[in-house]
Design a protein that fits this description.
Order of helices and strands: EHHHHEEHEE
CATH topology: Ribosomal Protein L22, Chain A
Strand order of the largest sheet: 1-5-4
Number of helices: 5
Number of domains: 1
Number of strands: 5
Shape: globular
Helix content: 40-55%
Structural class: alpha+beta
Strand content: 25-35%
CATH architecture: Alpha-Beta Complex
CATH class: Alpha Beta
Low-confidence stretches: none
């Protein structure tokens, strides 16, 4: 059964500016070490542009997730919402015990699955989240 849906758009340029300025404090507040490693490790010849694009997708996913649970920005710390990819490349949100507990405590929702889709086009990342309960 669907418990919530959320969608968000983020400009890759917005993230690129944070990277260019070397504002690691902001990056560390928003992204987990795993997300930063994936974004940086996964780059090819396009370097920073590709990193910014991937991080913009992760950021959009976190905001879409918060909209799906019914919360506002930072109602759950962004680092608690971790985006990753399966071997197939499919993105997913890691529903840790801690994250599930936060959602239950703050929003009285018991989430079984979080379905995530991320796409990029012309400097914009879009993420769509569908939350399911039993």
């Amino acid at each position: 059964m669907i418990e919530g849906i959320g969608v968000d758009l983020v400009s890759s340029e917005r993230i690129r500016e944070i990277i260019k300025k070397g504002n690691n404090r902001v990056l560390d507040r928003i992204f987990s070490k795993g997300e930063l490693n994936v974004a940086i490790k996964g780059v090819s010849g396009r370097g920073m542009a590709r990193s910014a694009e991937r991080l913009a997708g992760f950021f959009a996913a976190k905001e879409a997730f918060l909209k799906a649970v019914g919360g506002g920005i930072f109602s759950i710390p962004f680092k608690k919402i971790e985006v990753s990819n399966k071997i197939s490349g499919e993105p997913f949100i890691k529903l840790t015990v801690e994250l599930r507990r936060l959602i239950l405590d703050k929003f009285e929702k018991s989430i079984e699955k979080a379905r995530l889709s991320i796409s990029h086009e012309k400097g914009i990342a879009v993420a769509f989240v569908v939350l399911e309960k039993r």
